[in-house]
Amino acid sequence: MMNVYIAAPLFNEMERKRNEDIALFIEALGFTTYLPQRDGGIAYDLIEESVSLKSDIRRNLFNLDYEALKASDIILFLIDGRTPDEGACIELGMGYALGKKCMGYKTDSRAMDANGDNNIMIDGCVDWFMYDNKISLGNALKRMFK
């Protein structure tokens, strides 16, 4: 079974809900997913709830996510927002460097480029595969990876 790592911002209720919806959608297609907010945890919450050192929690969370990246077959980068999330950009770059198949999902028309394009480094990592709705994303996953 193919495992999809979902690289996405997770800093507010709307982002976390959207990420969970995408994970459930992909799981319904027969894939397994690693969703950092669910499967690793959210650093702010872990720090607040723990007696461990903040630096230890942050390092452990980084290592957990990095191991999940290495174990994944596909990196799905959720790029919606005025600017791409820094952490998700790093996860995408790591996935690309590890030789993973990288895909993008963007339903938001905003972009920082003067021509309305994504950053060329992001587009290069996703092999120019950027999907703008769940149907096209699901069809691509099934076609390429089943």
Main sheet, how many strands, which sense, barrel? 5 strands, parallel
The average pLDDT score comes to 89
SSE ordering? EHEHHHEHEHEH
Beta content comes to 5-15%
Question: How many angstroms does the end-to-end distance come to?
Answer: 9 Å
Please outline the helices and strands.
Blueprint: E1 3-7, H1 13-28, E2 32-34, H2 36-40, H3 43-49, H4 54-71, E3 74-78, H5 86-97, E4 101-105, H6 120-125, E5 130-131, H7 134-145
Parallel strand pairs: 1-2, 1-3, 3-4, 4-5
3D structure, described in words:
The protein is an alpha/beta fold and 146 residues long. Helices cover 52% and strands 14% of the residues. Strands 2-1-3-4-5 form a five-stranded parallel beta sheet, with helices on both faces. It starts with a strand and ends with a helix.
Question: What can be said about this structure in brief?
Answer:
By secondary structure, this protein is an alpha/beta fold. The protein contains seven helices and five strands; from the N terminus they run βαβαααβαβαβα.
List keywords for this structure.
146 residues, five-stranded parallel sheet, 7 helices, 5 strands
